[in-house]
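Residues pack. Consider this:
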Amino acid sequence: MPISILEVIALTPADAVAAREGGADRVELVTDMRRQGLTPAIATYAAVREAGLPVRVMLRGQDGYALGDAEGLVRAAAALREAGADEFVLGFLDAAGAVDLAAVEAVLTVIEGCRWTFHRAIDHAADRAAAWAALSGLPGLDCVLTAGGPDGVGAGLATLVAEAGHRPRVLAGGGLRPGHVAPLLDAGVDAFHTGSAVRPGGRWDAPVDAALVRAWRALA
């Protein structure tokens, strides 16, 4: 049985095409992985959408997990929404390391009705259980991208296994390797996110390789 969701990070339209050819279910569209992934240009979104896969667009204006320029990010979200984007990725922490619900809700006002992922900010929260509780019931939230902790899936595997039944759904990613998939599937985690692992040599300056995506797609 194949993985229920395989999400691939795309930086370019060519990445999205390769992800589709390899059997990915959707892409997470970002720019500038040197800064952990920021909001892409509208033109890039429009070109990536032509690949025919669902596209979750990153809403993040700066390094780190603070909201930063709230007005700028809300404008960017509104412009992407107007351009047709209907799935997003976002997530903010406050100065105390708690989920910044005010910041999240400020962005949700302009993407109302859209599905979205809370990204790896949860792995840097001061209180992980409190972060999960804060996310419960937020409108449109259907996935939480997490490695189980700040040091990647290898270190956070036991946490991910323990959280397998959480809602919103666990989307496992952040240093994910093929050997992690079987124990996660056994535990009930069935959504996976990969980026550098589907690029030759694991390099962000290399394009997504459809054959590498296909190898992930074949895991069960």
